[in-house]
Design a protein that fits this description.
This protein is mainly α. The chain is 69% helix and 2% strand. It has one domain (17-50, 59-255). It has a two-stranded antiparallel sheet with strand order 1-2. Keywords: Antibiotic resistance, Membrane, Transmembrane, Transmembrane helix.
Length: 260
């Protein structure tokens, strides 16, 4: 006697399918990739050293000096790029047909994005630590210890936005093009959003454009423990872009059924 399987009777796992085992596997897979580790640890610190001890680094900036301001900015950029690269690994999974397999499971798309973001958060933490260690060894940055720690922690949570961005881009473009889009794109957004160059150095028209870019809000938040300045619209900017990237990534995952 044959029985008919009723898909509606399948038990949906708790928490939308969030699974610590899958999370651990994802993290080990990233940490075993030597190129990823080198990129995570070396590139952000090299960016800080590339700026060098330029004139004016000893001038005061909030609770520290300009060198501390630049260190916080470079930690954000390095962590954002690393987190976005980690999130964009989904593009490779799509090319292998893994996304189609996930669509056959009751895994909630938002939960999947969350697990990807948590893995990217760990990689971003390595980038933040790398920049701060090099900055401390460089001896140029000056700020109280609690401000130093505060900037690092806030920066780490800000990178969740770019982890979601990486997943979103990974679902939109083919695997081999994901970082070709994210790399130059994040660099441009960093210039425009006040990460590399203070917004006061731009014209009024460019500043008004910068206020709407994804980098502006997180940059203000990341430097807030140092500058003690955090406009309300910077927080609104960061929250809005995070919601947009998570929603976009979840939407694309739910629609992605084809092997690319």
């Amino acid at each position: 006697m044959s029985t008919t399987f009723d898909p509606a009777a399948r038990r949906v796992p708790p928490m939308g399918g969030f699974n610590l085992t899958v999370l651990a596997i994802e993290l080990r897979r990233m940490l075993r990739n030597r190129r990823t580790i080198i990129f995570t640890l070396v590139f952000p610190a090299a960016m800080l050293l590339a700026f060098g001890g330029q004139q004016g680094w000893d001038e005061r900036a909030g609770s520290g000096n300009v060198a501390a301001y630049i260190l916080a900015s470079m930690a954000l950029y390095g962590a954002a790029l690393t987190a976005a690269a980690g999130g964009s690994m989904v593009a490779l999974e799509r090319s292998l047909g893994w996304s189609r397999q996930l669509r056959l499971t009751p895994l909630n798309p938002v939960v999947y994005i969350l697990m990807k973001a948590l893995v990217a958060l760990v990689m971003g933490a390595l980038a933040v630590a790398s920049v701060n260690v090099v900055g401390a060894a460089q001896g140029k940055a000056e700020m109280p210890v609690h401000v130093w720690v505060g900037c690092a922690v806030v920066t780490l949570f800000c990178t969740l936005t770019f982890a979601a961005l990486g997943v979103f881009v990974g679902y939109v473009v083919p695997g081999e093009n994901a970082m070709q889009v994210l790399g130059p794109g994040l660099a441009l957004l960093s210039f425009l959003g006040g990460v590399f160059i203070p917004l006061d150095d731009y014209s009024e028209m460019v500043r008004h454009i910068a206020y709407w870019t994804p980098m502006y809000g997180v940059a203000e938040i990341a430097r807030w423990p140092l500058t003690h300045e955090l406009p309300w619209f910077a927080v609104a900017n960061a929250v809005a872009w995070f919601a947009v990237f998570v929603a976009g990534a979840a939407w694309r995952m739910s629609k992605d059924t084809a092997r690319v």
